[in-house]
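Technical annex, item 7. During the second reporting period the consortium partners agreed on a shared format for inverse folding records so that results from different sites could be compared directly. Each record opens with the tokenized structure and is followed by the designed sequence. A conforming record, contributed by the partner at site C, is shown below for reference.
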């Protein structure tokens, strides 16, 4: 079923893709590059799994994507939010569990292993003393 004109879902998919290549967009949405090409050209209609992935991955309004009603709205993440999301997506399952645990306030119940030089790992919020004990940012005293 070929869509014509500016109102087709294929045009909206291409709009969401923006400056990404079709291959990059395909990888982020879990389909092949050829599938993206067919969706954008209107040669093929996207399935519900693809539509859900686009809505979730890119934060677009489902009504706009499916029907063309309303405006294109995309949630713009702050730089630190995008950084966290990118690292979460690239993490192993163990890493994802640790991130979710920390986000849900379960940080004390999750063990962590850092595999980076101290300066890269510690950043500005944690200071490591000579013995390896963590000191809080405010009082700079070893935990007791």
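Designed sequence (site C submission):
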């Amino acid at each position: 079923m070929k869509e014509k004109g500016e109102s087709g879902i294929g045009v909206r998919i291409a709009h969401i893709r923006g400056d990404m290549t079709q291959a990059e967009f395909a990888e982020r949405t879990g389909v092949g590059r050829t599938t993206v090409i067919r969706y954008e050209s209107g040669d093929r209609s996207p399935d519900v799994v693809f539509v859900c992935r686009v809505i979730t991955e890119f934060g677009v309004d489902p009504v706009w994507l499916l029907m063309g009603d309303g405006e294109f709205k995309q949630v713009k993440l702050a730089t630190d939010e995008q950084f966290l999301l990118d690292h979460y997506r690239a993490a192993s399952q163990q890493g994802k569990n640790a991130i979710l645990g920390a986000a849900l306030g379960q940080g004390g119940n999750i063990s962590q292993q850092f595999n980076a030089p101290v300066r890269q790992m510690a950043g500005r919020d944690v200071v490591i003393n000579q013995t390896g004990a963590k000191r809080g940012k405010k009082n700079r005293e070893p935990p007791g």
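The first strand starts at residue 127 and ends at 128. Residues 1-5, 121-130 have pLDDT under 50 and may be disordered. All partners now use this format for quarterly exchanges.
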